Every structure is written in structure tokens, then in C-alpha cells.
């Protein structure tokens, strides 16, 4: 659950993210809102996150993480920072979380940044983010990071498609750093999971990367999986 606070004891929640698809305890695909939550579980998650933030007089942006099993909710941890998957919350809320955290750090209140509890934006549609990593998967599921030089790097474009990346043709990454190369985020105006998944697949099919192996084949298979 994405929370935002100004240190006054008032915190707001900007919805939840579904982050179950992972490898090596690191997320690969994230969605907002979660397509698997019941209405009651969603209300409880947001309420718990706000209560925790209020009690801590939380200041800035942060994420309250839970494990969910049906209607059973278990608190996991708080990440007191901007997370890699903040993009999907931005897409459905229309809130620039980077700008918001900087303004709050400079002394702005929730009302100043347009996030008063009685005036929160209405979430719209569904967003999916996939993490394109410089890595390959072995048959046993183990992950091998890859190095080299990118000879071609052509991210997808189009309405509702966003790519956050530091990649470019000629880029030579180091194995000393995380293998994340790009985040591909797609947004559909309607909360339609099938449409969002199809849009994400089309975006990945249009992504052209040569010179270094990536996890694009795995991501495409995950997005096409019946489950």
C-alpha cells in the first residue's frame, strides 16, 4: 500500500500494488490495483496502512507491505522510501510521487500537494510494470546476470506506454550493479486485466535489444500464462 504523510500524524493511502510475481525475492511484474483482492480485503489493507502511518507520524512517501492469503492479511514490513514499482501507482492516480516526496521534504503539507484526506484523486484504470533485466534463466530456474555492450536499444512507444531506463545503444553495463535495465509500464483507462496484459505483451514484443541477453522471453511467457 502506497502511503504519503507530512509528519503531522495524518497519512493518506494511494491504493495498493500486486507484486506476487518474483524471482530471487525480487519483483518482476507489478500491478495497480491488485486484480486478486476482494473489496473487503482492499478496504482493510488501506485502513491498516493508514493506521500504521498515522501512529508513526510518517513523513514522506513509503510502502506498507503485506502478505495476503485469501482474506487473511499479515503485515510484513514498511519500506520508508520510493520503490521501483511506484510507477504503477503514479499511472492510476495521476500523482507524481517523486515530485510529491521532494515537496514534502521541503516542508509542504498534504493539503499543499493536493492530497488532503477528503480530496484524494480517484484511481483510474489498471497499470502493469515489467522489469527488463540483463539476465538469463537456467533450466533449474537460477538466474545469471549478463554483461557486454548493447548494440541496439529501441524501447516501445505509444499511448499508455511508459519506459523508465538508463539504457542506450553502446551502453556497457557492469556486473557490479543490479541487472535492471528498463521498466516498461502500460496503462489502460478501464480496469481490464486482459486488456492490460495484452498491451504489456505488445510493448515487450516491440522492445528491440541486441548485444546482451535479457529476460524479455521469460516476461513474455509470464504475461501470456493462463494463471
Write up this protein.
By secondary structure, this protein is α+β, with helices and mostly antiparallel strands. Helix content is 25%, strand content 33%. It is built from five helices and 13 strands. The strands form four sheets. A five-stranded antiparallel beta sheet has the order 3-4-7-12-11. A four-stranded antiparallel beta sheet has the order 2-1-5-6. The protein has a two-stranded antiparallel sheet with strand order 8-9. Strand 5 (59-69) and strand 6 form a beta hairpin.
Itemize the secondary structure elements and their pairings.
Elements: E1 2-6, E2 11-13, E3 18-23, E4 26-32, H1 39-55, E5 59-69, E6 72-79, H2 86-93, H3 97-105, E7 126-133, E8 135-137, E9 143-145, E10 152-154, E11 161-165, E12 180-188, H4 193-206, E13 208-210, H5 216-224
Antiparallel strand pairs: 1-2, 1-5, 3-4, 4-7, 5-6, 7-12, 8-9, 10-13, 11-12
What fraction, in percent, of the residue positions are helical? Answer: 25-40%
Structural class designation: alpha+beta
Give the CA-CA distance, first to last residue: 23 Å
Determine the strand fraction and express it as a percent band.
25-35%
Judging from the principal axes of the Cα atoms, what is the shape?
A: globular
Largest sheet: 5 strands, antiparallel
Total number of beta strands: 13
The number of helical elements comes to 5
Low-confidence runs (pLDDT<50, min 5 residues)? none
Query: In order across it, which strands form the biggest sheet?
Result: 3-4-7-12-11
Give the SSE string: EEEEHEEHHEEEEEEHEH
Give average pLDDT, whole number.
95
What is the CA-atom radius of gyration, in angstroms?
A: 18 Å
Amino acid at each position: 500500500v502506497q502511503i504519503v504523510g507530512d509528519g503531522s500524524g495524518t497519512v493518506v493511502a494511494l491504493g495498493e500494488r500486486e507484486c506476487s510475481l518474483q524471482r530471487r525475492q525480487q519483483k518482476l511484474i507489478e500491478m495497480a490495483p491488485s486484480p486478486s483482492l476482494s473489496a473487503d480485503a482492499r478496504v482493510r489493507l488501506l485502513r491498516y496502512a493508514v493506521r500504521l502511518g498515522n501512529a508513526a507520524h510518517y513523513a514522506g512517501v513509503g510502502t506498507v507491505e503485506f502478505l495476503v492469503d485469501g482474506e487473511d492479511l499479515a503485515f510484513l514490513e514498511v519500506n520508508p522510501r520510493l520503490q521501483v514499482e511506484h510507477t504503477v501507482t503514479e499511472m492510476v492516480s495521476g500523482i507524481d510521487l517523486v515530485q510529491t516526496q521532494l515537496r514534502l521534504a521541503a516542508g509542504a503539507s498534504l493539503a499543499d500537494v493536493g492530497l488532503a484526506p477528503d480530496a484524494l484523486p480517484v484511481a483510474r484504470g489498471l497499470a502493469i510494470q515489467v522489469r527488463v533485466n540483463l539476465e538469463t534463466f537456467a533450466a533449474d530456474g537460477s538466474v545469471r546476470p549478463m554483461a557486454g555492450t548493447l548494440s541496439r536499444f529501441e524501447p516501445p512507444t505509444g499511448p499508455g506506454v511508459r519506459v523508465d531506463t538508463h539504457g542506450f545503444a553502446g551502453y556497457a553495463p557492469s556486473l557490479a550493479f543490479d541487472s535492471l535495465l528498463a521498466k516498461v509500464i502500460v496503462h489502460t483507462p478501464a480496469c481490464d486485466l486482459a486488456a492490460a496484459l495484452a498491451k504489456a505483451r505488445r510493448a515487450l514484443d516491440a522492445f528491440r535489444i541486441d548485444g546482451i541477453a535479457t529476460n524479455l522471453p521469460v516476461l513474455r511467457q509470464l504475461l501470456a500464462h493462463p494463471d
